[in-house]
Amino acid sequence: MSRSTPWHTGLVLLSSSCAFGADGLLNHREFVVMLVCLCMIGLFGIVLDGYLLQRDMAKANNTSLGHGIPVQDLDVEEYNQLYDEKAFIYDKSRNRWDKGWFNNCWKFWCWLNSASSEQEDMAPTPEELALTTDIDGYSCMPGVETNLGELLTTAALEKPDGVCLETQDGCYTFMQVAQMADAIRKVLRKALLALDLPTESDSEAPDAHKRRADEHIVTIVLPRGVQSIASVHAVMLEKCAYNAFDICEPVEKLRTWIEVAQPPVMISSDASLRHLGIMDVAAALGEFPRMVLDVDRALQKAVGNSFPHPPCHSPKDHDRLAYLIFTSGSTGKPKAVMIRHKSALNVVRIWGRQVGLHDRDRFAQVASMSWDVHVIEVYATMAARATSVTCPDMVKMGPDMQAWLKERHITGMSVVPSHLRTMAGGGADVSRMLNGLPHLRILDVGGEALAADVVETWAPGRQLFNSYGPSEISVVCTGGYVKTGDVITIGAQLPTYQCYILDPETMEVKAEGERGVLFVGGIGLARGYLEEEEKTKLKFIELPGIGRVYNTGDLASRGAAGRIHYHGRVDWQVKVRGIRIELEALEQAITELPNVKHCEARVLDQRLVLLASGAAELSEAELKATAAALGRGYVLSQVPREAVSAEAEVPS
């Protein structure tokens, strides 16, 4: 069924209803005349609205469309003369589509279309997803980019006026974000040259726990938004790897990360450093970073607004590091997972095709930039030439989340199941009806076990995609659509991934229905843990006849149609709101405190709870402060005593 069906149906019904006159019926000629008139009126309205929309968007973006000259027909000097430096963002209040009668009509039109577009929203066929190519002996999804940062530059060249990112401050086109990234990149290059860092490396294939001499880590300490997006692309296009830190996390966690990554350069701003309480970088963070790049000044020093540096598509970039993601460590020290460009690009292309992203989508950017879900939120949306909409921190975990999704016409989001359950609490209407969330058609859920009540509430009329994957395999490796009444699994292995359920002792493949440990192979595998040789060898292993795989430590079994059932963790790791935590490591760290005799970590209703006993002078505030000072970055939740069962009582 096409998107125009509701319009045609409404037109025919309206025409039919108007065909009854005072004498009961109009004759055939009068009916035809009225039908033609209605069609002409409808066509005129569509043309007029299309023209007004183009005019308003051109004024808002102030890009080449507003001057009536295609970007590709301008040389650099002409473009610089036309471009207005003040138009990095625009005020959405100037857009007539946000208020008034047009807005109500547009919302109703979108609702009619959403009700009839289920066939369009279906995922691509298995044949389409099977179209893979080969890189370094690995099967992967095809694409021209060889560097994750090139997704932005290719989008800017193909769709310069398309809205790339929408924040509270306004909207940014692909070209504007690319120009910002290019400005930051130029200043970053000067910093790297000033530090006299190696630009080439003799080692083409470093050890799995090492990085090459020319693979420099750049830590980004900025709030989610256009500056952080532009900064990560600037870092990757300069052949460095980024590590993004969430400024809502404690500064002790940043200190621990920097100790591991040893970044020569950090990109931040005065406001972000003040938010973290950092007045003296050297005193607060130590030897690294050696230089801090102020993103505000980098953008102010940008000369003109020339075209961004064109992508070079170098095959050498495939094996370079793209980013670091930190996960919980077995001794309380976090592990830095090293992800390469070929792995990140592959998962971005796969996930985007699986959920059916297209250029009309508006995907919510909810995840912290320090959590690897941001990779699919930002880059998969960019690859589809769709719009990322940054959800404010005050909104994403508060009661206004549903209103924000509806107001911003969000069509897709990636979220943990517990968040969906909270949003639907109190009898809130989250359906696709006009009073609910009519635009929200894609839900990617992961990070926690998906329950039947969440599926029953959120799945009708939507594509609810249940995905699974540790950071070590680049975000996601299995997934599948779930409908009401389905047996909930973590789906089947995605194209280019190989999932094996093995006996942990004999390493023999388990038969269908038998439980074993899940091992994953394929191009999505991380290189390893930075400077953690033993842990890398323990988790990333070579299996005869199979190759290199990652031991997830998850119990699983394979069912019908290759779908995988998840049965929990083998070890002591748990996930709280999508964040992996090792309870034993936390208990060990807290037990080292001088006033603690005994402690036990628990998870209650997706909240991390610490039961501790010790000296009388040990207070809750002191316990939390001391835990944060250890640099583990754990956040402890306060719960009523009656919420803790008798079996969980800690001996005095």
From TrEMBL:
PANTHER family: FATTY ACID SYNTHASE, NONRIBOSOMAL PEPTIDE SYNTHETASE
Family annotation (Pfam families): AMP-binding (PF00501)
Gene Ontology CC terms, in alphabetical order: cytoplasm
PROSITE patterns: AMP_BINDING, PROKAR_LIPOPROTEIN
Name of the featured protein: NovH protein
A GO BP entry: secondary metabolite biosynthetic process
Organism (species): Symbiodinium necroappetens
Domain AMP-dependent synthetase/ligase: 216-530
Keyword Transferase listed: no
Keyword Transmembrane: yes
Keywords: Membrane, Transmembrane, Transmembrane helix
Membrane-traversing stretches: 31-53
GO molecular function: phosphopantetheine binding
Lineage of source species: Eukaryota, Sar, Alveolata, Dinophyceae, Suessiales
